[in-house]
Design brief:
single chain, Deoxyribonuclease I, Chain A, 1039 residues, 17% strand, alpha+beta
């Protein structure tokens, strides 16, 4: 016997529901309404609706749809002798039924459902949602049992993972802990490294985090279901302590979650450590914890309508891990599984239907199976006909259409391809592990059933063996994968994927509500990117006067140059909207070069580019800050690769013109040859150190432009290009390149609406950075103080000897704001800061503070500039501590994930990921104190132990370093300073002199030793400066 909901057609067998016969009869014959647990819709049982009730001898019989026009005589032969089992939202008569006339119902329509499928008509229903599975697990160190946990997840494939006692620290990345196929988990770690809760959902579910305002270990997520109500999943953990206040706070948090989502289906699971409660009777039978604590949870669960579904012990003979829900009828199964810790796992299977995202299947070209001889022959034949039928006067859109169609035809017909699979699996789980897993499960079931100590011991032994074998199989797989010859990319891919902390874009806030849908997030980001565009009035442009600069000479693009650019393409460069892969363009570079050279020359001569080159797919990249805010994402444009080749040619001509006539300011160090962050810092810090040595005060203002690349107004940029000599066809080409562009955001396989790009230089293009340098090139001309630029990062500083100097800096700051207003740019006041470089106890302070747009700028004792922490006294202690902490964290990551790999792999990883951190701009901040030198060297000494896999305290690290042939980091910094010196300055380091200084008088304390003095008797305050550590020695420098 069963009933069905009129709204969602969900069937309920009375045996599965635990419904008594009396309740069934009441629904059948009385005016009783009932609520469907799946859709929350009311159903009314009246005498006229008796045909709604379904009677079936087999309670597991399939209930399927049939056609609405199906009549009674089309039923299966055996249906005539059985009681009719049709169920419909429209009542229907029983034409052949043996009912009394008093029980008959009027004829309201044809039957639409039946309990027994019709023979030959039982078609498979579309979009049948599989049950939603949740795995609740107490891990007791997620990292230590990582491989065994992954194997358990692989075997039961849960949609939701609810974990307790993760024992994770913030330094452990989510990507290290979670198996593939799951969204970025929600974590709440305890500061002491114990406890902790985690929630993870499969990546085809639509979910977002629920804010829980509580200091307890509790987190929640909201999963979208079909219908109005969502599913709220809560992971909670109560430590085993008699703390009533903590218990009340945890109960209050659960109340707030459920009260805040009154129509939601709620699952609450975790280790509550409540062994005293008999959950069958909801009574307190034990005395391990106080009655007040136990009753607190019982009353809370009763008040919010939560039912406990775990009716078996989860640790020993006690039920510590709970799975509570406010819709117990939707839980079809709740069973124990062998755990990875000393708790059994709980697998709950529910009938709720969750919304599933359609997996994004990516097309993969199988280049190794492609016949490139045939492809080259085809392109060569096409090229000859193309050159003969087109000229530089042919419309560039028509030319591009021919090229694009030919290349796509080659891809579709001559390059085999496949689609990526949405399935995720653990390739290291071999047949031996699967067999061992089955043995462990059988031993687990036998131990639970018999409760004999021998069976329990056998299960525990198999569990230990399983954990050991999982760990061994995983590391063997990683080792074999990374050490395979001829495939170095696997190493970089493995490290990159393991370090990837988050995937995709987090749910974004809109009007205080988190948006989880991919299309909604894409539109939010697109609107945010478009909101910063500048609206320019082209009728009122600044007057730059007559240009004194010559024009860029005319040039012709030849095939050989195009061929070289195509041949140097990176094979795995991301495609643009035209979907033409770089691998194909690189392989057919010789055959395609004449075709593209003709297209490029026609485009340049006509001053136009194909319209398809103006379309950009924007990929959002998270910067920093709150990941739920769209403004904290940076747009990166993916444009046509062939368009980028043309940009390379234009870029080389313009930059050659600018360099030849020395048009770019010397204060700009960004995106220029032989200039870098380190060279800019060297010049800047030397200026600051000079003032500090001369006992002066220097006020430095760090300026930050808001969305600088996206705000560049096109007409003003073109005005400056013309002023610097970019004119005629070349200026027309750039004008067409900038104007009429459109963009759309690509996110998780979805596209946003298309938006017109009205300003800015596209980030991700070749010409974009150069165009920005030209636009900002005249900024230093409006100030009298010193200014340093690195792309859009600016540092304005001045030596302060009197209040007049402060007023001069105020005027320069006003002039910079005037430049900002004139050229329609904008400063981000919140990120602009003041750093006062001085050792004076009473520095000179002006009558009014430095301000931008009426907002007073913050004055700090230290600030980060171009990745280096500058302190007011130019002490590098904080910077050294910062880079050592970061490098040690990265080294710890490598130790966790490469500990079983050979020394060659470990050494490569150290030199690639750790050493660059401690050597970035080292010529600027090279410390002189023994304490800081030793702290940096300790990073390499730890790395030596890691590479050698020798952590014995009796082993000599110096011998390890000698065997590895690693120079000390101090020697490498000395060498770096020689390289960074100007080429016209012949110098040598006084490095050896400084090192030997500390070897003298070893018995004396370092703190009591006075700092070394210069020959002129002054204390060397510029110990960070490269020039300080050098003296002229042409012969040594030439070596």
């Amino acid at each position: 016997m069963s009933v069905a909901c009129d709204s969602c057609d969900t069937w309920y067998h009375i045996d599965c529901m635990g419904m008594s016969s009396d309740s069934y009869d009441r629904i059948n014959k009385s005016n009783v309404s009932w609520i469907c647990a799946a859709c929350d819709s009311p159903n009314h049982s009246l005498s006229v609706l008796d045909s709604y009730l379904s009677v079936s001898e087999n309670r597991f019989q399939v209930l399927s749809d049939i056609d609405n026009s199906q009549s009674e005589h089309n039923l299966a032969p055996n249906s005539s002798n059985s009681e009719d089992s049709r169920l419909s939202s429209t009542p229907s008569p029983l034409s052949n039924s043996k009912q009394d006339s008093t029980d008959s119902a009027p004829n309201p329509g044809s039957p639409t459902h039946q309990s027994s499928p019709i023979k030959g008509k039982n078609k498979r229903r579309k979009n049948i949602a599989r049950p939603l599975k949740a795995l609740s697990v107490n891990l007791q160190s997620m990292y230590a049992k990582r491989e065994a946990f992954w194997e358990a997840v692989e075997s039961c494939q849960p949609d939701v993972i609810i974990a307790n006692e993760t024992w994770l620290k913030p330094t452990l990345l989510n990507s290290e802990m979670m198996p593939p196929g799951y969204n970025t988990p929600i974590r709440k770690d305890r500061p002491d490294g114990y406890g902790g809760v985690l929630l993870a959902t499969k990546n085809d579910l639509v979910d977002c985090e629920v804010e829980v305002k509580s200091d307890c270990e509790i987190i929640a997520t909201k999963i979208q279901l079909y219908g109005q109500q969502p599913l709220i999943v809560v992971s909670a953990y109560r430590p085993p302590k008699n703390d009533l206040v903590y218990a009340q706070s945890l109960c209050q948090a659960i109340r707030q979650i459920i009260v805040g989502n009154p129509s939601a289906v709620v699952w609450v699971s975790g280790d509550f450590n409540l062994p005293d409660i008999n959950w069958k009777t909801a009574a307190v039978d034990g005395h391990q914890y106080t009655a007040a604590l136990n009753n607190c949870f019982i009353s809370t669960f009763n008040d919010v309508g939560l039912s406990q579904t775990v009716d078996f012990p989860t640790r020993g003979n006690r039920t510590l891990d709970l799975f509570l829900t406010n819709r117990p009828t939707l839980i079809s199964k709740c069973v124990p599984l062998p755990g990875v810790g000393d708790h059994d796992m709980i697998l709950a299977i529910s009938d709720v239907r969750a919304k599933k995202l359609k997996p994004v299947r990516r097309k993969i070209f199988l280049w190794r199976k492609a016949d490139f001889d045939c492809i080259k022959s085809e392109i060569l034949s096409f090229g000859k006909s193309f050159v003969e039928s087109n000229s530089t006067n042919t419309n560039v859109d028509d030319m591009w259409e021919q090229i694009s169609c030919e290349l796509h035809k080659v891809l579709d017909t001559m390059v085999p391809s496949k689609f990526s699979s949405p399935r995720f699996s653990q390739p290291w789980i071999n047949q031996h592990l699967k067999t061992l897993s089955r043995r462990k499960k059988r031993a687990y079931k036998r131990a639970r059933k018999s409760r004999r100590p021998t069976d329990r011991d056998r299960y525990k032994n198999l569990k230990k063996v399983m954990q050991k074998e999982c760990r061994s199989a995983y590391h063997s797989y990683i080792n074999d994968m990374l050490c395979e010859e001829g495939k170095p990319k696997r190493f970089w891919s493995y490290i990159k994927n393991t370090r990837c902390e988050s995937t995709g874009v987090a749910p974004l806030l809109k009007d205080g509500i988190l948006q989880c849908d991919s299309t909604a997030k894409a539109n939010l980001l697109n609107d945010q990117f478009a909101s910063v565009f500048t609206h320019e009035d082209a009728s009122h442009l600044p007057d730059l006067g007559e240009s004194p600069h010559p024009s860029v000479p005319a040039f012709v693009i030849d095939s050989e140059g195009v061929r070289k650019l195509l041949a140097n393409l990176k094979s795995h460069t991301a495609c643009g909207p035209d979907n033409l892969p770089a691998y194909l363009l690189k392989e057919i570079s010789s055959e395609l070069a004449p075709v593209l050279s003709l297209l490029f020359n026609a485009s340049l001569q006509q001053g136009k580019i194909p319209h398809a080159w103006k379309v950009a797919n924007v990929v959002p990249i998270f910067k920093k800050g709150d990941k739920h805010k769209a403004e904290n994402y940076r747009p990166i444009s993916l444009t046509s690769i062939i368009c980028k080749v043309a940009e390379h040619i234009i870029h080389s001509q313009i930059i050659h013109h600018l360099d030849e006539h020395n048009l770019l300011t010397d204060f700009q160090f960004g995106f220029r040859r032989k200039r870098s962050c380190e060279s800019q810092l060297l010049v800047t810090v030397d200026d600051l150190a000079t003032g500090l040595r001369d006992k002066q005060q220097i006020d430095a203002i760090l300026l930050d432009f808001s969305k600088a690349f996206d705000r560049v107004p096109h007409e003003r940029l073109l005005l400056k290009l013309n002023h610097y000599g970019v004119r005629n066809e070349l200026l027309s080409w750039i004008r067409d390149f900038l104007q009429g562009r459109t963009q759309q955001v690509l996110l998780e396989g979805k596209k946003s609406n298309t938006t017109n790009v009205t300003s800015g230089v596209p980030q991700g293009t070749v010409l974009g950075p150069l165009l920005f340098l030209i636009f900002i090139n005249d900024l230093p001309d409006c100030v009298s103080s010193s200014i340093r630029l690195y792309a859009d990062d600016a540092l304005l500083y001045r030596t302060i000897n009197s209040h007049d100097d402060i007023e001069s800096l105020h005027r320069d700051l006003a002039n910079v704001q005037e430049w900002e207003r004139k050229w329609l740019m904008s400063f981000n006041v919140d990120k602009c800061e003041v750093l006062r470089i001085s050792n004076k106890r009473k520095p000179i302070i002006g009558a009014s503070p430095y301000s931008i747009h009426g907002t007073t700028l913050r004055t700090l004792d230290e600030a980060k500039y171009l990745g280096v922490i500058l302190q007011r006294n130019l002490n590098w202690k904080h910077h050294v501590h910062s880079i050592c902490k970061k490098s040690n964290s990265t080294l710890g990551f490598l130790q966790r994930n490469l500990r079983k790999c050979p020394a060659s792999i470990k050494e490569r990883a150290y030199k690639t990921y750790v050493r660059p951190i401690v050597e970035y701009s080292s010529s600027v901040w090279d410390p002189h104190t023994k304490e800081l030198i030793s702290k940096i060297e300790m990073v390499q000494r730890r790395a030596a132990r890691f590479v050698k896999a020798d952590y014995n305290q009796q082993s000599s690290v110096t011998a390890m370093l000698k065997d590895l042939q690693w120079q000390s980091l101090q020697e490498r910094r000395a060498h770096s300073k020689v390289i960074m010196l100007p080429s016209n300055q012949s110098t040598t380091l006084l490095y050896e002199e400084e090192c030997t200084h500390w070897k003298k008088k070893k018995k004396k304390s370092f703190r009591k030793r006075p700092p070394p003095r210069r020959r002129d008797g002054q204390v060397p305050l510029r110990q960070h400066s490269t020039q300080h550590r050098t003296q002229e020695s042409p012969s040594h420098a030439s070596e």
